[in-house]
Structures are given as structure tokens and as C-alpha cells.
Amino acid sequence: MRPLLLSLPLLSLGGCALLMPSHDPSQAWIALDAREGQSMQASRVDDKPLSDPRFFQVTPGRHELEVRLEFEVGAGDIGQGSDGYRRTCLLKLAYADFTAGERYQLQAGGIGFRPWVRLYDERNREVAKARESRCGDV
Q1: In the chain, % of residues over pLDDT 90
Q2: How far apart are CA 14 and CA 28, in angstroms?
Q3: Is residue 1 part of a domain?
Q4: Domain that residue 30 falls in
Q5: How many domains does the chain have?
Q6: How many CA atoms lie within 13 A of 71 on its CB side?
């Protein structure tokens, strides 16, 4: 019983790490929408590394975002008798009109070996597409 009581504070700290910080209304918030079977992380803004890979928060105006995407390449895209595998890519997305207080969403996926990332505004309109930076050991 005593070890359980001693471990409760440590377990509760782990739950706090899952909470997202509050949105600063003077900045634009960019959420990441990873689909099943993939992992997407915020990597850099304007070539500066981020401390939290779960989201972007940027000042109004032009910014270049870098995203790390890991996705599944299906066996059918590789060749007969092959197994599927995980591919990791860095993608960069430039957008000139980030607006203070607005919430954006990055959605991603893969078609065969090609990754894609698109930025949507609050009205669910596509406003930008990312370009592949590099894939492999990233």
C-alpha cells in the first residue's frame, strides 16, 4: 500500500504533461491532425527549433513551418511479396497570412512514398500546401 501512495504524485505529473498550453490570442495557433497510423510533430518555425512538438503558435504574418511526418507505406506500393514499412519525412510549409487569434490545422498523409501536408483555416479552407524537404533518417 505504501509504494502505491508514494507513486501517485509521480503518476499525476505524467498527466500534467499531456495538457496543452492555453492559446495566446495575440498569436495564430496551428494544431496538428495526425491520422491513424502516422505520427506528426512540429519541428521548426522560421528555422528555429521548437520546444514542444505538439503544436505551433506564431505571430501574425509570414512564417515557414517545418513538420516531421512518419507514415506507413503499404506493401502494395512497394512491390509484390514486400512488407510495408514506416517512412519519415520533413516537410516545409510557407504561409504569409497567419492571423492573430485564428486557429489553423495541419493535416497530413502519404500516397505511396510521397508525403503531403496541408494547412486549413478556421473555415476549413485549404490555405497552403507543404513541400517535401527530405525523407529518410530525419
Answers
A1: 54
A2: 27
A3: no
A4: 21-135
A5: 1
A6: 24
Nearest to 90 by CA among 48, 132, 128, 130: 132
Q: pLDDT band for 5, please (50, 70, 90 cuts).
A: very low
Looking at residue 36, its amino acid is E
- Give the closest residue to 39 by CA, choosing from 69, 67, 66: 69
Model pTM? 0.79
Measured between its terminal Cα atoms, the distance across the chain in Å is: 45
- Give the mean model confidence (pLDDT) for residues 72-82: 67
Residue 3 falls inside a structural domain: no
> Do 116 and 110 meet the contact criterion of CB atoms below 8 Å apart?
yes
Distance CA 132, CA 136 (A): 12
